Amino acid sequence: MLIKSTHKNATKEHQITDEKIYYGRREMLKNMGFLGVGTLLGGGANAGVFDLFSRDEERPSVFQRDDLTYKPEGQALEELTPESKIISHNNFYEFGAQKNQPAELSQGFKVDPWKLAISGEVEKPLILDYDDLYSSFDLEERIYRLRCVEAWSMVVPWIGFSLADLVKKAKPTSKANYLAFETLYDPEQMIGQRNRRLGGGINYPYLEGLRIDEAMNPLALMSVGLYGKTLPPQNGAPIRLVVPWKYGFKSIKSVVGIKFVEKQPPTTWNILAANEYGFYANVNPKVDHPRWSQASERRITTGGIFDQNRIDTQPFNGYGEQVASLYSGMNLRKYY
Amino acid sequence: MALSIPTDRIPLFKSLLHLVMLYPLVNLYIDAFADRLGADPVDAVIHFTGMGAINCLLISLLISPLAKTFKLGFLIHFRRMIGLYAFVYALCHVLNFLFFEVQFDLTLFIGEIFQRPYITVGMGAFVLLLSLALTSSAKIRRKMKKNWQTLHNFTYLVALLGVVHFYWSVKSDISEPLVYFALYGALMAFRHDRLKRWSKRLRLW
User: Fold this and answer.
1) Quick one: which H or E segment has residue B22?
2) Contact call for residues B46 and B101 (beta carbons, < 8 A)
3) Is residue A319 part of a domain?
4) Distance between CA B45 and CA B25 in Å, rounded?
5) For residue B37, what is the nearest residue in chain A, using CA coordinates?
6) Residue A305: half-sphere exposure toward Cβ, Cα within 13 Å
7) Radius of gyration of chain B measured on its C-alpha atoms
8) Are B173 and A97 in contact (CB < 8 Å)?
9) Which residues of A touch B45 (CB under 8 A)?
10) Can you tell me the ipTM of this complex?
11) CB contact under 8 A, B36 and A46
12) Most buried by CB count within 10 Å: which residue of A102, A296, B40, B203?
């Protein structure tokens, strides 16, 4: 008779399976996974005049992702976007501005050692190194909708910890009104930072920011993994922000710095095109991007071209109950 | 260098050209249906067909400079077909947007055309291209007499609007659209006499 433990844990399996077999199987699955992604990327439909030069610049073996121990969320209410799509369709211009490029150009990315510095208006500045990212806080799974400002969306099973826990640990001072986030600046590793064309013409490092009450909202997540394993580089390894009620570009990847500041910090897309991307960037079907409607979105799921469904976009990406009060009294057309 | 092909071989070369033009398109949709176009097949088919249309337009504009400069007169036989494939790709581009992007939401479709300047420009190019495609047969050409050439000179405008549409749709990195602007400029430079004449008539400068 099989007695199932109520506390399900994805990593228990290796305790009963012979390690040799276990790792052999993982290796095989990994290779299969890479083949799968490779086939997807080989489609060439995004081929532009420059692809001749960029295709084979860097093609190292696949990035090593480790299993994580975490508290599972349980049943997902919506169909999850398949892992193969989540890790092959990325806006992470540091590794190329085409959606397929980050998965291709980031596999050699080194995340260990890593330093995430918490500084500024705090009583306890701290530095989390690579191991701290996974051990300082209890990890839990959070299944969130991700709504890109480009009007497509996914459902992602993230693993991470509440940003609020990190904020509390750092003990912000009374002057800490905002958090300024910064992505790693390492042109040697990030091809988009050394090649302006591949990097989409952005000035690096990538910067983002939150108001402190937004950061304290229980939904704001510091993610270190997805689908049970550590993040791959294209999704922001080793640690990234996830703010599910805002457009995806707010959820900054591969974070090395969180500085508590008094004034609203500059943010990358807002610097680039202030009329198109605001500081707040809350998902809002009523406020269009100047070049396209935000009223609906295409949900990326399994299947071919006929399975891509268009659905209505929800205010605050459907998280209004938890976050709308943060913005009461604010004109969301002005503070888009 | 003067190169020519026997007249009776032209149909053969036309058939080959059909294959060359159709192969990427058929391949694209097979991959799209089979979920082999990356995570967002909709974006992929829209982008691919749009670029296909612009590429065909620019190739069609390259024909007469090539024919004149290198005395390759036979190339002219293929110009109309390439122009028509520009239309086929553009039609697929518009239908992809309607079917797969807005998914038959006609209010949204029409709203986007009029509210988003870059889509307005693209749609303007498509309507012009449609009128060129509809009047492309030899019979209509004869009937239209001089007006035919006047109408078909709008090819230059269609190509310009197409490149503007591409430039405008890009989120941040504009190097690829700039290359297209340069190609367009080069193709138009071959026609500077004609452009000068028109601008005089319109008193542009």
Assistant:
1) helix B10-33
2) yes
3) yes
4) 9
5) A43
6) 23
7) 18
8) yes
9) 45, 305
10) 0.79
11) no
12) A102
CA A276 – CA B43 distance, rounded (Å): 20
> How many domains does chain A contain in total?
1
Query: A43 and B100: CB-CB below 8 Å?
Result: no
Chains A–B, number of C-beta pairs less than 8 Å apart:
116
pLDDT digits (tens), chain A, 336 positions: 454 444 444 434 444 444 444 444 444 444 444 433 333 333 344 444 444 444 444 455 899 999 999 999 988 789 999 999 999 999 999 999 999 999 999 999 999 999 999 999 999 999 999 999 999 999 999 999 999 999 999 999 999 999 999 999 999 999 999 999 999 999 999 999 999 889 998 999 999 999 999 999 999 999 999 999 999 999 999 999 999 999 999 999 999 999 999 999 999 999 999 999 999 999 999 999 998 999 999 999 888 888 878 999 999 999 999 999 999 999 999 999
- Whether residue A305 and residue B41 make contact (CB cut-off 8 A), yes or no, is yes
Domain that holds residue A269: 52-327
pTM equals: 0.81
Strands A296-299 and A309-312, sheet pairing: antiparallel
